[in-house]
Amino acid sequence: MSTAQLIPLVQTFVLSRQAAGLSPRTVEFYDAHLHAFLDALPPNPTVDHLNASAIEGYLAQRQQEVKPRSVHAAWRAIRAFCNWMQTRQEQFPEWTNPVPHITGPKLPRKKVPPIERDALDKLVKACKGHNFLDHRDKAIFLVLASSGLRASELLSLRQGDVNLNNGLVHIEQGKGGADRIAIVSRKARLALADYLGHLERRKPATPLWWSQRGPLTYSGLASMMRKRAEEADVPRPGAHAFRRRWATDMVPKLGTHVVQALGGWADVASMRPYVQLRPEDLLDAYESNMED
What we know:
Elements: H1 6-19, H2 24-40, H3 52-63, H4 68-86, H5 117-126, H6 132-147, H7 151-155, E1 168-171, E2 180-183, H8 186-196, H9 218-232, H10 239-254, H11 256-263, H12 268-271, H13 279-289
Antiparallel strand pairs: 1-2
Helix pairs in contact: 1-2, 2-4, 3-4, 5-6, 5-9, 6-8, 6-10, 10-11
């Protein structure tokens, strides 16, 4: 029997994720899900409470409360913690990692569509003014649509990361902690130039995206998209809808491996759910690349 307390172990695990260089959002993901699990256990839980019965009971309860993706997220956090605990097995010789004995929750395979091209055009046209917010929001839409950036990557950009001459974008520590290069279109670069003209702080290390109260946050980005979607009378898109649009449009033109590298996917299999080619897309790609 082990009387080692779980709460300080979870805190150590979260700190280890931070020390490993994971993004703040990923660290927060582990912290939130693991503390929610701890709250479901008896007071002052010990390592002995970290067993298959407790984990399966918690996941079953969560299935009654939240969406399947949230249940799967909880499972991923608990699984990562258990596997980390296994690396310290000598401290808990009587504890056995329950993960191999648990069938994790299935994640439903639901294809989320890319933003429609017509909706993208309407969002851009909704930013028709010439003030700070109009120029900023137009630039954001065009950068997302032409680069395939994740929301976290977009928001972490500094002014010196984007080369307005050739469109190269330096992504520092994207998903997985790897640096890479993305590219934005000429149209996006022109919109960026209009937006940058409004900024007083023009230094390479200064954040690229600003609100009227400071650097733009994820909640600020989501709020902006909701407002612009209402103005344009289109469904509210998530940032990943632009990434799906980009991947779907670029694969026929650049090929899977180039798009994988530019988009920062670990492999082609990870990229595949983002590409949703319609018959007309396949026909256009075939005809544009075949000789008569």
